[in-house]
Amino acid sequence: MNASLRERDKALVNNWYIACLSQELKSNEALKRVIYDTPLALFRDKNGRPAALLDRCVHRGAQLSLGYYDQGELRCPYHGWKYNSQGEVTEIPSEGQGPCKGRHQQRAFKAIEQDGAVWVWMGDGEPKTETPPWRFPNYGAAQWCHYFMITDFDNEVTNLVENFMDVPHTVFVHSGWFRDRQMTHVPMTVEAGQGEVLVTYHQPQDSIGFTRFLINPLNEKMTHTDRFIFPNITRVDYTFGESSAFIINSQCTPVSTLKTRVYTYIAFKTLNYAFLLKPLMQFYTRKVIQQDVEIMKNQGDNLKIFPDVPFRSSEADELHLAIEKIRRYGAEDKPEAFTFNKKSEKQFWI
How many angstroms separate the CA atoms of 98 and 270, rounded? Predict the structure, then answer.
C-alpha cells in the first residue's frame, strides 16, 4: 500500500462521488472535503449552485476552504484573492481595482446537486454523464420516509461494499440486533452484468431484528435482494408484500488510504405511521452501522500489517468475487467492467 489510493484505484477516479449532503453546504460559508487524497473547497455561487475548487490558493498556497464567502465567490483568508465558481481569480486586493479575471485560475471540479447530495466529478477529463447516473430510490415519494446517515470508516471501498452486502457476518457482528445464528440454510442466486452484481436470497421466512414489528406488522413473507452498482454503491432491499419495504442505499466516497466516508440513504414505508417510527429507525440503523464501523476497522488495521496476503473464499463469497472482478476491470478502464456476465446458484448457512 505504498502507492496512494488515487494511484491504486487508477480509472475508478473517473466517476461521480458525493462530497457532502445538501444540508451541510450552507449558503454563506465554505466547506472542506477530501476525495481521493484531493482537498476540495466547496461553496455555493450567487445562485445557490454548488461549486468545488482545489483547496489551494494559487498565490501562496493557503486553504481556500478556511476563507471568506463573498457574494457567491470565495476569498482566500491570507491575502484576499477572490475566486468564482469556475476557479477564476476575480480580485487581487493588493492591485487595487485593476482587471485580473483570466490571469490566474485554480482547478474547478464539476459539481451537481441531486437527491439531497452534492456530487463531484473527480476525473481529469469531462464527465462521462452530465449528471450522476444514480438516483436514490423513492426520494421525496409519498408514503416513503427517508433520511441520510454519514459514517467514516477506516477501510476502503471494495471491502465496505462487500461488507454491506454480506449476510453471514450479520449473525456475528450484529448478533441480537439484526439476526442471530440459527444454522439456517440459505440458497442464493448471484447475477453479474452491466457493471452490477445482483444477489437474490431465497429465504422468505427471514427477518431483520425488531424492525419486523415496525415495518412488517402483518408478518408478510420477505423478499431480500442486495445489489452492487459500479463503482461504489450498494442497495439492500427488504420487501414485505405490497405495503411495506425497507431500503438501505450506501454510496462510498474514497477519502485516502483506508479512509472512506459513506453516505447511507435509508427509505422505508409501512402500514403504520412511518414518520412516527423514524426516530426508532434512526437509532436502530445507527447502532447496526456502528458495529460495521468496528469490524471494518478491525479488518483495516490488519490490512496495514498484511497488505498483500490474499483472501480465501467460500460459496457465500461468490458475490464478493464478482464485485472484486468488476472493480479491478474498472480500475484498468476495461470494458469488461460492464460486459462481464455470470449467473450462479450458491448456498450457505447462517
Answer: 62
* Separation between Cα atoms, residue 101 and residue 91, nearest integer Å: 7
In this structure, what C-alpha cell is assigned to residue 29?
460559508
Model confidence over 140-189: pLDDT tens digits? 998 899 999 999 999 999 999 999 999 999 989 998 766 666 778 899 99
Q: How far apart are CA 113 and CA 50, in angstroms?
A: 7
Element of type H or E holding 289: helix 274-305
Tell me the pLDDT tens digit for each residue of 19-30: 999 999 999 999
Cβ contacts of 341 within 8 Å, gap of 6 or more: 192, 193
Number of H helices, E strands in the chain: 7, 19
- Grid coordinates of 80: 484576499
What is the number of alpha carbons within 13 Å of residue 206 lying toward its C-beta? 27
H helix or E strand, kind and range, residue 171: helix 170-173
Q: Is the model's pLDDT at 60 over the cut of 80? A: yes
- Positive or negative: CA dihedral 219, 146, 164, 128: positive
